[in-house]
Specification:
single chain; Rossmann fold; about 35% helix
Length: about 300
Amino acid sequence: MPRVFIAGCGFAGLAAARLLHGRGWEVVGGTHSEESAAALAGEPFPVVACDIADREAVLALPELRGCEAVVHCASSGRGGAEAYERVYLNGARNLSDAVPMGRLLFTSSTSVYAQVDGSWVDEESPAEPDRDTGRLLRETESLVLARGGAVVRLAGIYGPGRSVLLRKFFSGAAVLEGGGERWINQVHREDIASGLACILEGGERGVFNLSDDRPVTQRELYAWLSERFGMPLPPAGPVDLNRKRGWTHKRVSNAKLRALGWAPRFRSFFEAVECDPEMVAAARASGGGVGGEGGGEG
């Protein structure tokens, strides 16, 4: 039975841990704090607390011994460049050194594609972010690839209790930035879990985009939500150039991952809204959760 350590049992990491456990993997989850680990005590696999940026703590962690694979999907906690270097770059280096014979899979972000012309991008496209946060992601990617690992670039993450777009729509905070022509790329939490499992089980290495099948423009997305829920179309507004990882405008291809046999359950955000009432209810009731570019990008 293969053994995997999931560093970052949060929104997407926990879904991946549950799926892998259900498929027969011996799973150990990792969280940053004892409180978070205690909250997951009811899971059918052990969850331990460890700060992956603490080199001594990682190298001494007994749960990492014997792991064939490590998934690094820990969050920076919405921090800036310093947090990115600490959690992503140092964390990846520490985890790799702790499991020298195992494969490291790092969940990066499609925000590393800085294209602004609306073009399609794939794993061979230039990935040259202009912000320190994006450059640190690329540095982490390079480290993981140099050590024979896999990099998974996640689009904007959403799912039950978390959708920044639904939250903004229902709260009235949504605007059509610069006319709303910017392309939005997203992926449901459930499809992230199945994509990571596909890469792990296939022993894959290299870079993979993990996104749904249908990028949509901001205007198309909000127009559909307006019609679906009988609410007004959001007003026009300025382009937000202060996004943490920069403003981008591109369409992300998932063809490389699909060629391995993976297919998303939710081929588009529209399908997920129709099929996932829990996500819609949560967005209406509490404003959803933190979405966007923490481990992905919209």
